[in-house]
Amino acid sequence: MAPVPLTSKKDPECVKVVVRCRPMSRKEVEDQRIRIVEMDTKTGEVWLKNPEDTREQPKPFTFDQVYDHATDQQFLFETTARPIVDSVVQGYNGTVFAYGQTGTGKTHTMEGLWEPAEMRGIIPRSFCHIFESIEVTHDQNFLVRASYLEIYNEEVRDLLSKDPKNKLELKEDVERGVYVKDLTSYVVKGVTEMENVLLAGKKNRSVGATLMNQDSSRSHSIFTIIIESSATHADGSKHIRAGKLNLVDLAGSERQSKTGATGERLKEATKINLSLSALGNVISALVDSKTSHVPYRDSKLTRLLQDSLGGNTKTVMVANLGPADYNYDETLSTLRYANRAKNIKNKPRINEDPKDAMLREFQEEILRLKSLLEAQQSGEAPAAPQSSHGSSAVRQMSNHQLDEVKSKLQQQKDELARAENMRQEERDKAEAEIRRKEEALAKEKRERERLATQLKAMEEKLVSGHADEEMAKKKEQELAQAQVELEERRREQERLNKQLREKEEISAAAEEKFSSIQEECAAKTKKLKKLWTRYEQAKQEVKDIEREFLQEKEELLETIREQDRQLKLLNLIVNNFVPPEERQKVERRAAWDEEGKEYRASTTSLLPCWSVDGKSRWRRRARRERARSVLSLLSQAQRGQARL
Hints:
Blueprint (H helix, E strand, L loop, with lengths): L12 E2 L1 E6 L4 H5 L6 E4 L4 E4 L10 E4 L2 E3 L5 H18 L3 E7 L5 H5 L11 H14 L4 E13 L2 E4 L8 E2 L1 E4 L3 E4 L5 E3 L2 H12 L4 E2 L7 E2 L2 E13 L5 E12 L6 H4 L4 H24 L12 H5 L9 E8 L6 H14 L3 E2 L11 H21 L12 H5 L3 H20 L5 H38 L1 E2 L4 H42 L6 H61 L2 H10 L1 E3 L4 E3 L13 H30 L1
Parallel strand pairs: 2-6, 2-18, 7-17, 7-18
Antiparallel strand pairs: 1-19, 3-4, 4-5, 8-9, 8-13, 8-16, 8-20, 9-10, 11-12, 14-15, 16-17, 21-22
């Protein structure tokens, strides 16, 4: 594959934002709900009608592309995610994430249904396209790894771990950026293995039923694919590229009045909304030229997506909408959210020769094993210290020499069996020497077989294309041509839209040449009405924003009230059931953990030593249990206070 030109640091590209509207659900049709979303898939325009005021003009929005309810999964993938996947194979970082209200089809967009095949979403189609792209390459080796995590109640969990409920830590490194410590990653060699990784993780993902969705995602999930490739350049040097693809299925924003969430579901919804609010704040900060600080650290989600928003990544956001009238506020909020995201600028570049590339380690290990096997087979292995069994001499023999030695040993055994006049002592000594040599031969054979097996296993983990050089070049040219045509089509669309606006302006200017006062009056009245309509739209926009702000404020206040109630309950328990001296001990030894956003203390440091008689052991056990309960209560109380 020919090298792809690096993107200049002075040539940033905007996040691509597309909008998809699902069809009306059966319940919405039965309830005779009104469709309030209209789309023009050719111009990328969306109009949202206010169901409460039919006189109000529909609100217009324009995006890179829009998909109505009739759009099939294949077309969505080809026009949205496929260019990102192609870029990742070439060595860029890429992210595709779905955002929207709960029940708008985000998981359907990202995963879809496994059967029938045409209903599969972006994630499984990406699997197929990755290995199809690898198959048509020439003289390149690839190492493909996959991992799967979720963010549940602001806790990062490994969905591929034996203990998926175990909380993992986020770390940051100069070379790697933000990463998850101890996250499980599997090397995959084909589509089936990748699908098995996805299905294994899905079994552990947190889902639950609400009034708006029977299988509502209760967590944000990120399926990550790392593709490392090695190619030999014209000068004979080898270079490694590493692309990372993040496929993100965000949990949907919720309103308790619609979902009917209570108890644990309400707690999950609160955490989901807070993390999505933090994501919105990051987007707002990135598009506001006056803001110098971007609050990535306000949420685990924004920290993990830090490189995808304003960093070294090609990013596509799929905003999912519901078409029914009772979702007007949520749909309007999603459209505004997506409209802001259009202005985020990333600076993607190819990741050349990363220091943490696993492919380099694999290649070095394969070369080491090959050289070791070749040296052993040719009899040129480096000499090792002499042992009593002569293993060093055996190790330096080639395979042909080993066969000769084995044949000679067999001859010696036959001669020993025929010898009649040999003393018993000499016979035992000769038999022992033959046995030692046979054991050394068998050991060396097992060692060489182990090395060969290890080498084969390492080589099988690498994936290579099987196309000849001519076919690979042809496919590469076709891909480049397709990308050029796609860019030309986009520019042509922009040119046509510009021409249309110019024609409208020329037409409006021509109408200003009047033959009478009546015509001039009519034209100016028409123009005034048009300006008045725009003015009314702007006023309505201000009102909508104020109403949305008040709704968000009320939701946050309700969250604060709920946390305040929990905090008062915990304080009541602590003040009435925990002795003051025990509380003071905990407070002295408690330390705030900035990473985990909670207080931590060692329970063992809180326990004094007593004598070992029965009564003291009973007291010590009781105090230990009480200390643990105090720590638990105080930790919950402090977490609630930190949220406030």
